[in-house]
Amino acid sequence: MEVYETSEQVGCRVADLVSEVVSEKPDSVLSLPTGSTPLPTYKELGRRVAEKELSFDRVQVFILDEYVGLTPSDPQSYRATIKREATEILGIPEDQVYGPKGESDTPELAAKQYESAIRDAGGIDFLLAGLGTNGHIAFNEPGTSFSERTHVVKLSEETRRDNGRFFIDSETPSHAITQGLETILSAQRIVLVVTGENKADALAVALGQIPSTSCPASALQYHGDVTIVADRPAARKLLLSLDAKG
Ligand code: GLP
Predict the structure, then answer these.
(1) Which end of the chain, N or C, is more open, meaning fewer C-beta atoms within 10 Å of its C-beta?
(2) pLDDT category of residue 20 using cuts at 50, 70 and 90
(3) Residues in CB range of 115: below 8 A, 6 or more apart
(4) Which residue's alpha carbon is nearest to atom 6 within ligand 1?
(5) Atom 10 in ligand 1: which residue has the minimum CA distance?
(6) What distance in Å separates the CA atoms of residue 66 and residue 127, rounded to the nearest whole number?
(7) Dihedral of alpha carbons 70, 72, 74, 80, sign
(8) Beta-carbon contacts of residue 135 (< 8 Å; ≥ 6 apart)
(9) Are 179 and 75 in contact (CB under 8 A)?
(10) Atom of ligand 1 nearest to the CA of 38
(11) Confidence class for position 244, pLDDT limits 50, 70, 90
């Protein structure tokens, strides 16, 4: 695990990791998350693109997850959010950005089609993920089997409460389509980015304890190429528990 003092430093470090991948393989298949945590990363990458240090024009992006019932034009859909906060500033053409079709009348089928689309693209080279306060990764809620592929989930009350901040005038959706843990673990390389004291418990359980479906992010312990980049408030409890174990 790499620990930095500020979320901006975390953002720069993760931007370095993304830059390395895209410089090495300009047509990389990336999986990117929404959320507040990756914003400093996207900002720094946007700066590098604006200064022509880096180009994303050949990458493909598969969003990690999407709410069921929202159309891509809904500003709270993850499709609209990732466009606004990441892919537009990175200069990634819209037809190279994919997300689960949350607006579908048959979300289970849409989930299967999304999984096939990832497979048809040759799989994910590099996956960036954030962490939910309950240990979720993408929208894989506690209790999800580690062997699930892209599927429909019922969101937990804690997740709906956390994400309710974005739904001022409407109900927070109750379901989502998410890449499954098996889909995520199939990525060649994973970076988990975690900032803020409110993630300290989840991170300590995810990496400091034996993997368990009660903490979906603990599945990452089974992947051979994961980098955790955290700020000190998020890492504090995990560092304490590792110290205590000697
Ligand atoms: C959401 C998303 C996750 C994200 C998590 C943390 O529930 N489905 O992909 O990692 O929230 O969000 P934040 O970074 O805003 O704390």
Answers:
(1) C
(2) very high
(3) 149, 150, 179, 180, 183
(4) 132
(5) 130
(6) 16
(7) positive
(8) 142, 202, 205, 206, 214, 215, 216, 217, 218
(9) no
(10) 14
(11) confident
